[in-house]
Amino acid sequence: MNPWPSAWTKWNDKTIKITEVEHSPHLIEQYKEGEVFLDHDKIAVQCGFEAILIKKLQLEGKKEMSAEEFLRGNKDIIHQILT
What we know:
Blueprint: E1 7-11, E2 14-23, E3 36-39, E4 42-47, E5 50-59, E6 65-66, H1 67-73
Antiparallel strand pairs: 1-2, 2-5, 3-4, 4-5, 5-6
């Protein structure tokens, strides 16, 4: 999905463009669909019974960054529901 059409979501009234993901190798059922959580210190998003790991993203008005860089300044995204 890179560079077009790409995946995006809304969080705190801003758009997040998700530019690189990978499939989580773990079967996870304890989170709500769309919920953000940490999976072995990586940002993950619940998708049904499985999850994706976000590797790179771009917050509206910012440059593209790794998920680790994003998490340093935005720890409050954990347990939020992305729409």
